[in-house]
Amino acid sequence: MVHIKNISTRNQRIAMYKVMVVCAAVVQLSFIATLGGEGEIVNNYGDSALSTMPQKERKKAAMCSIVKNEEAYIDEWVDYHHALGFDLFYIYDNSDGFEMKQWGNEKGDYVRVIHFPGVSKQMLAYNDCGKRLQEGGNGHHTWAAFFDVDEFLVIKKHEHVSDFLEDHCVNGAITVNWFFFGESSRIVYTPLPVTKRFIYREPSVNQHVKSIVRLTDLNMEIHIKNPHHIPLKSGSQHDSNGMNFIGPFNPNGPIDVVALHHFHTKSYKEYIHKRLRGRATMSWEKGDMDASLKRAKVAFEKALAGEENDGTYTFFDETAWTLMKKNVLYMALFDEIDTNNKSQQDKSNQFISAAMT
């Protein structure tokens, strides 16, 4: 019964989120003329669909990722990074039943969904993705990022990811340090974007890095063995300051140009659900799962007690959400929904107060 309840809850979450996205898109369409100017059609990414202005010819960047039961989150993640300029996504579906097949068919021709079931398949998926991109079967891409669906790239001095990479990844691989975001005192899932719900992070940068690699320098003979360290046959592994280093860690890495916002925990119940369902990136033994659940109760202790902040994630940072609203226009309507709900609640509270006096 617990298993059935978990699945039902997950499906309800997905349905609620999709309904809100559809409603937001419908409202957006009604304001197309306002958004794009008279007689101009604007798409979800703020671009003029009928513009005759010449577009800058850019080199291409692709994304490699493996997912398991991420249906409630993947649209936000893909839309965000597509708007940044990633024009191809290889999504490796680690579910047993190829659950992402329909989503992939409906999402668009910039998404390739590959069924990839099994235990601890992340490195195999990354290697397969790197090989496919090196062979150039989908548009001859220059770079590939190897990110998870809970990681959002925040570029701070460039509008387009290819412009950022032209400046910082002429060869080898550019590394990006994590910023860890906490639960923002949230206990349960709500059908709002992840980047809107979680806006408090650790004050200091995490030493772990993820990479965007120049495909001509990717060494597929060695194979990728660590998601935080991509093997190279030429060029250097370096940060945005140009400092070369080897390995998965860059203590005190620079964050003025780029950072990777890692929404690892989300709410308490989402975190527990993720632990119970298993992950695409590793296998779980029962002892490991029990220990993880115990750690979760400790980590979320203050949130469960109703306290506003747990003392770890104290730095307010809504950069990813700001970029999301700027680049993916329908997402901005979630703020409008929030504002309207708060306004209605305030009116209700005023009415109740007046009635009681």
UniProtKB/TrEMBL annotation:
Keywords recorded for this protein, A-Z: Membrane, Transmembrane, Transmembrane helix
Main location: membrane
Membrane topology per record: Single-pass membrane protein
One Pfam family, short name: Glyco_tranf_2_4
GO cellular component labels: cytoplasm; membrane
Cell compartment(s), UniProt: Membrane
Domain of life: Eukaryota
GO molecular function, one term: glycosyltransferase activity
Name of this protein: Glycosyltransferase family 92 protein
Lineage of origin: Eukaryota, Sar, Stramenopiles, Ochrophyta, Bacillariophyta
